[in-house]
Write a structure and sequence with these properties.
Number of helices: 12
Shape: globular
Structural class: alpha/beta
Low-confidence stretches: none
CATH superfamily of the largest domain: Alanine racemase
Bound molecules: pyridoxal-5'-phosphate
Order of helices and strands: HEHEHEHEHEHEHEHEHEHEEHEEEEEEH
Oligomer: single chain
CATH architecture of the largest domain: Alpha-Beta Barrel
Length: 419
């Protein structure tokens, strides 16, 4: 069981709402720091281990500063993300660019930053050399095809647009070496919200075997093995958190067995988890503004899928509680909806909840990763604010809510004023 708690009392929450009206995401600095430390501990056997926090999970520079203070790097997949990393004072090889179908300006910025560049295809090598130059450290993203089975979020590697096949890997490293690249790593990302520990052991096995084969066949010695992100979190209260220490220990055993005898014992481990770092540290706080009874009972919130798309997009479960009603009887069944003109704009379907009154503060859990980050403006729905709950209990606004002015700002060719 994972306990689904919210770090604020109803009274404290109401006080905060006086300054920052709902809806907003609120993130716990304490929980974020704890998650980075837990992962670091799990891989403490690997000198130089680093988690490259996946910026796309929570692209806010205040959050990036916090993970940076805890020793993380970043994993970036767009120009905006590279700029966010730079703004949060990440430098050089703390920054990793893992993109695909990559435009030249991303490569150029990554080269300017001295970032590690992770290539998604062999053809990107020439494109990179022509458009930006070659980096100091390079890796390629391995797509192991049928060796891994995938899940609903990430799909099957064979069907995925990412990465190079096994044969292409040898060709790509050889070509990069011939072009003059001196330092190498190895990357893959084949898991998403993966909750089976053995999946990470399988990934590590595949990667260590590949590192050994690269040494034998191409004569390169990889400096790091990046097994990607994808560590799952318990979205449902009945689920257990992943035992990252056991995963780290399992990977250590495989490292000893495969890498050390091959003379690759100096390679360091790297991960790029986003969800496991900030996911459980965030909550979307909304207010119930409507109750509707038709064939079903509905509670309508002042937020919508523009603020949290995962339930609509993946049918994902997010736990819901009501502030001040944590111990009330769970004797109602509701669909909890947002206001977007899409029938799938439902945060929960047939969810057992306490009786909800208009004005109640409805708290959606585990929104700290791929929550606000997946925001969009369809239907003219606006991004909500993001707040940081500091370790001392104070609250800091780290993104103001988008306004209609922001939304209309890019319109051209229209003489009138909209607001
Ligand atoms: C999304 C992504 C991640 C982070 O995934 P999580 O599920 O948040 O851990 C890491 N690496 C790459 C390349 C990604 O696309």
């Amino acid at each position: 069981m994972s306990e689904k708690t919210f770090p604020l009392s109803k009274e404290r929450l109401e006080e905060i709402i006086k300054t920052y009206p709902t809806p907003f995401h609120i993130y716990s600095e304490k929980k974020i720091r704890e998650s980075v430390r837990a992962l670091k501990k799990a891989f403490s056997w690997s000198p130089g281990y680093r988690n490259q926090f996946a910026v796309k999970a929570l692209p806010n520079p205040r959050i990036l500063q916090i993970v940076h203070e805890e020793g993380s790097g970043t994993d970036n997949s767009s120009l905006a993300e590279l700029l966010l990393s730079e703004a949060a004072d990440f430098r050089g090889e703390e920054i990793l660019l893992t993109s695909n179908d990559t435009p030249a300006d991303e490569f150029q910025k990554a080269i300017e930053l001295g970032a590690i560049i992770n290539l998604d295809d062999i053809s990107h090598l020439d494109y990179l050399a022509e458009n930006a130059g070659l980096p100091e450290v390079l890796c390629f993203r391995y797509n192991p095809g049928d060796l891994v089975d995938g899940n609903d979020i990430i799909g099957k590697p064979r069907e995925a647009k990412y990465g190079l096949t096994r044969d292409q890997m040898f060709e790509a490293y050889k070509r990069a070496k011939d072009m003059g690249v001196k330092r190498f790593g190895l990357h893959t990302m084949v898991a998403s919200n993966e909750r089976r520990p053995e999946a990470f052991l399988l990934t590590a096995t595949i990667m260590f075997d590949m590192a050994v084969a690269l040494k034998e066949r191409v004569g390169i010695q990889v400096e790091f093995i990046n097994i990607g992100g994808g560590l799952g979190i318990p979205y449902r209260p009945e689920e257990e958190p992943l035992d990252v220490v056991a995963i780290g220990e399992g990977i250590r055993g495989l490292f000893q067995e495969k890498m050390v005898p091959a003379g690759l014992g100096s390679a360091r481990m790297m991960t790029e988890s986003g969800r496991a770092i900030t996911g459980p540290a965030g909550w979307l706080v909304s207010t119930a503004i409507h109750e509707k009874k038709t064939y079903k009972d509905y509670i309508g919130l002042d937020s919508c899928m523009a603020n949290l798309m995962r339930p609509a997009m993946y049918g994902a479960y997010h736990h819901i509680t009501v502030a001040g009603k944590e111990h009330a009887p769970i004797d109602h069944v509701y669909d909890v909806t947002g206001s977007l003109c899409e029938n799938n704009d439902k945060f929960a379907i047939d969810r057992r909840l306490p009786k909800i009154a208009i004005g109640d503060r409805v708290i959606i859990h585990d929104t700290g990763a791929h929550g606000s980050a997946m925001g969009f403006n369809y239907n003219g729905k606006l991004w909500c604010a993001e707040l940081l709950l500091r370790e001392d209990g104070s609250v800091e606004l780290i993104r103001r809510a988008q306004t209609l002015d922001d939304y209309f700002a890019t319109l051209r060719g229209f003489a009138g004023s909209i607001i």
